[in-house]
Design goal:
Length: about 55
Amino acid sequence: MSNFSGKHWNIEAGGKSCFINSKGELKRKLTTDGEGLVIIEKEDDKWKSKLLKIK
């Protein structure tokens, strides 16, 4: 999942992209202060995630 906040094509993007599992539980989210990438995977019954901030 990718996230962008700031101005692009003269449109303000809000950021706050997130990953929610099938039970509706928030597992990881990005903020409004820059670009980033969330890498998330399910291993057995557990979720693992890593956040890479670009800016």
